Amino acid sequence: MFNSIVIHYGEIGIKGKNRDFFEKKLIENLRFALKKLVKKVYRRYGRIICDLPKKPKYKKIEEILKNFPGIEYFAFSIKTELSLEKIKKVSLKLLKKQKFESFKVESKRSYKEFPLNSLELNKILGEYIIKKLKKKVDVKNPEIILFVEICEKESFLYTKKIKGIGGLPTSTSGKIISLLSGGIDSPVASFLLMKRGAQIIFVHFYNPNFNKPKDLKKIEKIVKKLTKFQLRSKLYLIPVEKIQKELVKKIPQAYRMILFRRFIIQIANQIAKKENAKALVTGDSLAQVASQTLENIYSIHSSSIFPILTPLIGLNKQEIIEIAKKIGTYEISIIPYKEVCPIISSSHPITKSKIEDVINLENKIDKKEKLIEDCLKRTKIKFFEI
Ligand code: ATP
Ligand code: MG
Q1: For 4-163, which CATH class?
Q2: Residues spanned by CATH 3.40.50.620 within the chain?
Q3: Which of 131, 189, 202, 352 has a Cα at 20 to 30 A from 381?
Q4: Helix and strand element counts for the chain (H, E)
Q5: Alpha carbon of 213 to those of 187, 206, 208: distances in Å?
Q6: Interior CA angle at 177 toward 24 and 220, to 5°?
Q7: How far away, in angstroms, is 181 Cα from ligand 2 center?
Q8: If one looks up domain 175-385 in CATH, what number appears?
Q9: Cβ-contact 260, 179 below 8 angstroms
């Protein structure tokens, strides 16, 4: 029945001079994601329209648009000519298929030359539907709302708005390097920044002597899941067994985790430079575990040149889990896997490290740069697409 989709984007509509840039990017992203599913994507008065083929794959399209950064809501709609007669006819066609007793009409006239204003149109259509379908109007609590949008060249009618995730279109805020573990938190942190228009590049550190191929498969699964929020992803898989070996040799157990974290952050900084990214993101949440006391966050994060964003810093575990479930990463994250760190973790990690001590310890490791370079050399990169 439907021949089009109406897409509304809240936030980008108010971005002043940048509006054009954001709209174009959203259209470009939609064209890429829906290339096999719609015929045409174009702009109409502060909304985006997609023309549907004869037999649309509704489920597939809905799944994509529901998770698309930058979309407030969308609706499968019937596009018709800009004439009252046509609009009346389509209203009946749309409503006849549905069960309801009470209704109301909500028109939006974006094209001001149309001879009826929205109130007049609501009234005329309302009376017409009452007469033809024998239903009653309920303005406060209708069972169904008929939405009518009047644009310059055509009108769009629909009854069901589907909520999107909002935010900003992918690739409008620059690149960020995400330190992705196999846990629950870092995928959620990555998602929150994707929603803000960042292109996330994933980096995962593993120990080839401990981690099995299935551990890396799990990481890839998480990246695949997250790719639906940003169209394309890149994953760096970085072996760190040589660094860990050095840490075991030279560093007291209580400090190993902190030094290891400083190492992986420095490696991520190198990748940020190479990728022209401007920040890193981690899943840190204040005081959730020993490495996340304020003292330790300071000791670890101060090894970074680029700012480290921590969107989960003030969230409770339960709040993080709820988002993970919503975005579909939770089920993958809870699959058991080997942490990268068994040999460097400690049952009594230091919780209030002092930066001077940490730096002194780090200086005990000679050829630091060489170790980092070696990791980077043996890195594997994988690509993903929506
Ligand atoms: P997560 O649930 O994301 O694993 P966590 O609460 O378990 O987080 P930690 O394991 O202390 O906390 O890790 C803190 C952050 O460090 C992670 O959120 C992630 O960003 C980063 N990190 C930890 N291990 C790795 C790894 N092997 N590869 C990449 N990043 C990692
Ligand atoms: Mg973890």
Answers
A1: alpha beta
A2: 175-385
A3: 189
A4: 13, 15
A5: 20, 10, 9
A6: 95
A7: 6
A8: 3.40.50.620
A9: no
pLDDT per position as a tens digit, 290-330: 778 999 999 999 999 999 999 999 999 999 999 999 999 99
Is the Cβ–Cβ distance between 147 and 74 less than 8 Å? no
Q: pLDDT for 225-266, tens place per residue? A: 999 999 999 999 999 999 999 999 999 999 999 999 999 999
Which segments of the chain belong to CATH 3.30.2130.30?
4-163
State pLDDT tens for residues 128-161: 999 999 999 999 999 999 999 999 889 999 999 9
CB of 266 closer than 6 angstroms to any ligand 1 atom? no
Nearest protein Cα to ligand 1, atom 31:
181
Beta bridge partners of 147: 106, 158
Give, for ligand 1, the residue of 176, 177, 179 to mutate: max count of ligand atoms closer than 8 Å to Cβ: 179
> How far apart are the C-alpha atoms of 65 and 379, rounded to whole Å?
34
- 37 with 60: CB under 8 angstroms? yes
Q: Please give the distance, rounded to the nearest whole angstrom, from the Cα atom of residue 81 to the centre of ligand 1.
A: 55
